[in-house]
Amino acid sequence: MAHYGAFLALVTVFAPMVASLLALCAYGMCRFRENGRGASFCHDIVPLFICVMLAFSAVAGVLLFILFHQDSTAVHHVPLWRWFRSADLDVLWRLRIDGLSVAMLAMVSFIATLIHIYALRYMDEDKTRLRFFAYMALFTFAMQMLVSADNMLQLFFGWEGVGLCSYLLIGYDYHRQKANQAAIKAFVVNRLGDWSFLLGIVLFAVSYGSVDIDALSSLSTGDSDTLFVWQGYGIDPLTIGALLLFIGAMAKSAQWGLHVWLADAMEGPTPVSALIHAATMVTAGIFMVARLSPVFVQSPLVLDVMVVVGSVTALLASAAAVTQYDMKRVIAWSTCSQLGYMVVALGLTAWGAAMFHLITHAFFKALLFLGAGSVIHHMRHEQDMRKMGHLGGEMPLTCVMMWIGCCALTGIPFLSGFYSKEYIIEIGWGGHGDIAEMAFLCCLCAAMLTAFYATRMMMMTFHSPHASTKVGDSGMSPPHDAHPVMLVPMAVLALFALILGAVGKAWFVGEQASVFWRGALFDNHEQIGQRAEQAPHAWLMMPVVLSIAMMSLAVLFYGFLPRFMAFLQRMPVASWCHSLLTQGWGMDKLYDVAVVRVVRAWAYECMTTVERDIIDAFGPDGVAVRVRHMARWVALSHSGRLYIYAFVMVGGVLSFLLWLGAEWSLFSFAP
């Protein structure tokens, strides 16, 4: 395991970096030779080579997963170099190989490869697609560094890397103002989380003298003599550090309150959305909390906060998705809701269940985004579902595969989402206390809404008989399905959406979970399994029955009674609720009033009072004004008139004589 595993880990992690550097070099060469044969070669061949490099990474990641599954009794480290040493803090750059990292490495590299292959056709008409592939490969490398990190500073390197790449890719079409605004919004919101995350790392380094994951995993309350006193109560730094880390995870994984960047991130190209929502950006926060599960399990307060935040996110995000008309925004709000499920599982200490749902969700969410990209590509970049509706006959393969992803998202039995999402609901039922009951009810309601908005999206896109555009209208291609280069990755993802839940349940949450996650997650798998088994069998089928009922309701309303839905939307109360949900519960307006306008007014006051009246007045502007005044007085003495010069000379001589006389008098009468 040691030698082969180290080699496979290096290939998995660093192959995307090599591909990114190659793409950047090729892009630079094409900028100098825009019309030459070399530019055409780079535009056509280099993306293929990048896909080959990503395929090497995916094969190595899958082989590493299989090899580790055969020998998962220990945690392995691949040392690279010493990063730095400061006093007692010695930080090494090492790759960590355990059950959690190999599962993430395999998933990220595999899905990223499929998305890169899909993008070969999707971005074919883009003249700067080398830059796109460079950013995408760099995005994959940053995520691979994050999931293979052996200490918190190395993890923070990957954490910042995915944030940078998301900014570059969301604003890829930088000539569009909306894309620039969305990129800045994502960057600023994530900076808030990164600031909290970095404070948590510093707190652990100062309080416990280490940032290594193994050292942090062995901590317990009381290991530090430092207590933070607040209103007479002493708070252990472990609790404060865990809370700071979770706030960082809230921003990266788009939990309610710091989720406002996620829907606007749809301004990037569709392959970017698929990579962000399935395998990289939004999964980073969930992974980080699971990685430090031994730390979080000792902070009951933080666990309760996680359950509440995850429950609210799952429910409110699914409600917001019900009223969206932009196809990609529906799927984006769906991602936000499913991340809420994962955070609920983390808060209930069901670490394996959270990671199981993260992995299954990655495949069917990538499938939904790539399917949406095929539809948008066919409709010439039209994303409004009200202008679709007739595409089921024109794109039958895309329609079938998107229905598979939709059913997996809904939790239809025997698909991957059924095994992972319903397991989280069962754990919520078996939990103790009011918070666990609230989580169960919120997740159950979110499951119902998920079934409704997913079916609504499919009906409005593929099966609505009242579409506003017909075949042959301008703005869409002639009737045909997606290109085979786009269909093959979708077919692979659809296959995994069908079988991954049943195949992976034994590894991630079943009888082999304790062995597979050994050394990676806090070991309470038997306790969580017993908690899930406490739910009555009748209750186990309730989410499925309610989801099927909501799917039927969506088919009825959007397939046969669309005028009834339009009538409901015209009612005053329903219209107000519809507008509120369409705007994402008004969170953007709330932040605009409570934060943006306040900061802008404060900045304007600082500019007018502090900067202009103080800094500028006594600084550069004041110096310039005084130099100008002195120059004006000096200019008066250089008029060129003889009597003025004579007056100045006589005055100077008299002044000098007076000074000499004063000096002589002073020394003559001195005692």
Explain what you see.
Helices cover 74% and strands 4% of the residues. The chain is mainly α. Strand 1 (76-86) and strand 2 form a beta hairpin.
Task: Name the features.
671 residues, mainly alpha, two-stranded antiparallel ribbon, 4 strands
What integer value in Å does the Rg equal? 31 Å
Secondary structural class:
mainly alpha
The poorly predicted ranges are 469-475
Total E-strand runs: 4
Query: What is the count of helical runs?
Result: 28
Strand order of the largest sheet: 1-2
Instruction: Estimate what percentage of residues fall within beta strands.
Output: under 5%
Mean pLDDT comes to 86
The portion of residues assigned to helices is: over 70%
Distance between the termini: 100 Å
Largest sheet: 2 strands, antiparallel
Envelope shape:
globular
Ordered list of secondary-structure elements with their pairings:
Blueprint: H1 2-32, H2 37-70, E1 76-86, E2 89-97, H3 99-122, H4 129-147, H5 152-170, H6 177-208, H7 213-217, E3 228-230, E4 233-235, H8 237-252, H9 260-264, H10 270-278, H11 283-291, H12 293-296, H13 300-321, H14 327-347, H15 351-378, H16 396-410, H17 416-430, H18 434-463, H19 484-508, H20 513-516, H21 525-533, H22 537-540, H23 542-560, H24 562-570, H25 572-582, H26 587-618, H27 620-636, H28 642-668
Antiparallel strand pairs: 1-2, 3-4
Helix pairs in contact: 1-2, 1-4, 2-3, 2-4, 3-4, 3-10, 3-15, 3-19, 4-5, 5-6, 6-8, 8-11, 8-13, 10-15, 11-14, 11-15, 13-14, 13-18, 14-15, 14-17, 14-18, 15-16, 15-17, 15-19, 16-18, 16-19, 17-18, 17-19, 17-21, 18-23, 23-24, 26-27
